[in-house]
Structures are given as C-alpha cells and as structure tokens.
Amino acid sequence: MLITCPYCGPRDVIEFTYQGDGNRERPDPASQNFEAWNAYVYDRLNPAGDHNEIWQHSGGCRAHLRVVRNTLTHEISSVAFVRGDHGSAARRKAEDKP
Amino acid sequence: MVERQSPLEPEFHVGSHGNFEHGVEILLTETRPGSIVQLAAWPGEEKKLIAAIRTVTGLSLPDGAGGGLSDGVKSVFGFAPGKFTVADEDEGLAAAFAKAVTPAIGTVTDLSHGRTAIRIAGPKAEWVLAKFFAIDFALTAFPIGAGRSTTHHDVFAQIQRTGADQFDIYVFRSFARSFWKALCHASEEVGYEVQ
Questions:
Q1: Predicted model pTM
Q2: DSSP state of B62
Q3: Which of B61, B77, B135, B170 should one mutate to test binding to chain A, selecting the residue with the greatest count of A CBs within 10 A?
Q4: A5, A36, A82, B166: which could form a disulfide with A27 (CB 3.0–4.6 Å)?
C-alpha cells in the first residue's frame, strides 16, 4: 500500500503510523456529556468502503495526514495535511524538474 | 574545543574493499560537518525563517517541498513542512541562528553531536541506495540539492543529493556505525573505497 504524502510524495505504508478514525469529534474537555464522550471513545462507523482516517508520516516528514482509504480495496482516494496551514508546503510541479 | 570522536571509528577502514577488481564504483566517506542544525518555523513564519537562513548561510532556498542547495561548505534542505536541516563545515552555526531566528519566528535545535553525516558517491550510488530506501533516486525525481526524509529499518535518515551521483545521509549518531556497516556490505558487490 502506498500513501502519497503531500510533502514527500508516494511512500510505502511502513513509513506511516495509523492515528485512528478521522470521523470522530472530541467533545469539549470540560464537557460532562457522557453520551458524547462514549460516542467519541467507542462509536465507530466501520464502513465497507471509503473511510476517513488520520495517519502520521512518522518515518518521513512527521506531518499528520487526513487520508480517505477504501476498507475493501485499500485504495487511497485523497491525502491532505490535517493542519490546513501546511497547504503551501505541498509538493509543487516546479520542484519535480531536475 | 574538545576533539570530536567519530562513531564510525572501529568500522572505518580506509582503502578499497569488496569486488573492486573491475574498478571502484562507490566512494564512502564521513563528511564530519562542524555544525548540524535543525530549524522549525511556527505556522505562518516560514518565509521569515527562510530569510534568516539566507542571512546566516548566504544560501537562498528554492521554492517547494524538499527543496535545498549546497555550496560545498554549507548545505540546507527542507525535510518537512516549515522544517529545515542546515549543515556547515565550521562550528558555531547554532549560535549564529540563535541570533537570527527569534522566538517569534521558530526554533533552533543544535544536532551537531546528534547526527553523523555519511557521503556516498560514485556511478552506483543511486543503485546502492535503492537497496536501502523505497524512494525514487532518479535525477528527475530527486534533483541536486533536494532533501528527503525516510527510514531504513526504523533508522530515520535525511538524505540530500549534493551531486549527480553523490548523496549526503544524516543518521542518528547512535545508529551510525550499524548503518555504515550495512552501507559497506551493500556496496561490496560493486566494489567500494573508503576515504
């Protein structure tokens, strides 16, 4: 499985660490809404198809990435920085020239 | 200043080795830079950090991910969003950057004693490195001056191309001897010379 890191380009999955489900939203740390916390900790969509995931390129640029992976085929349809302000650091075509 | 010891010392054997009857196709050496510094910009401060790099080193970083350059004495390359590695033959780079990179711009980490720089050169350099790292070493995909961060069996490595067939690899000092031995073994079949 290859993940195309927006900074480093296509890399083997061995360089990445799975950081969990990308769909869940953490409640306010001060919140005492136990249902919301329960959903955050335990409830998962478990889809057979496209799944939003968080991965870290731990063996490369160490950026956290928002990845959409198909759980049936392992096809990766989109990869983006979790931090939006990293967008300008993405690989550009100009850099690919010798 | 205390003389810096090389972690490669017990396994650093100058001369030709391996299958070199038909010529040496790999040159291995330790570049021993006086300074290795890692710089990181706070969000939105990247341009100021790049300006500080130009002020201190005189090197103008090219645009784009993994961009870098080397003038033979000083080298700089990007290895992550807003993060850069700078190496210099002379000591004192961290002190110079500590003045130029204010706390509002980003951080300066002196890695001079934490990393070992190994240079691999020669017509088979790309071929040997392709045995180690699953990245594209072709000149079109990995231009001169550019940097890449990757791993070899969990040993984190930063690689800068400093010539058409020359690469500088920065590895953790504590893993450097093991990595060096692996690099020597991988170079045996094409013949290598340690300088």
A1: 0.90
A2: P
A3: B135
A4: A36
Partner residue opposite B141 with nearest CB, options A61, A88, A96: A96
Minimum-distance CB partner of A89 among B82, B140, B144: B82
Chain segment B119-132, per-residue pLDDT in tens: 999 999 999 999 99
Judge: A63–B80 Cβ closer than 8 Å, yes or no: yes
Interface contact B84, partner A, CB < 8 A: no
DSSP A23: S
Among left, alpha and beta (phi > 0; psi -120 to 50; other), residue B66 is left
- Dihedrals phi, psi of B9, to nearest 5 degrees: -40, -55
Residue of B102, B100, B67, B103 whose CA lies nearest to B83: B67
Residue A96: pLDDT band with limits 50, 70, 90: very low
Domains in chain B, ordered, with CATH? 14-32+114-194 (3.30.1360.120), 35-110 (3.30.70.1520)
Amino acid in the structure at residue B101:
V
Cβ atoms of residues B19 and B189 within 8 Å: yes
* Contact indicator for B39, B107 with CB cutoff of 8 Å: yes
Ordered domains of chain A (ranges, CATH): 2-96 (3.30.2270.10)
Are B82 and A92 within 8 A, CB to CB?
A: no
pLDDT in tens, B18-53: 989 888 999 999 999 999 999 999 988 999 999 999
Among B85, B140, B149, the strongest candidate for a mutation testing the A interface, having the largest count of A CBs within 10 A, is B149
Which of A11, A90, A95 comes nearest B67 by C-beta? A95
- Burial-class residue B62 by CB neighbours within 10 Å (0-12, 13-18, 19+): middle
Instruction: Judge contact between A25 and A36, C-beta under 8 A.
Output: no
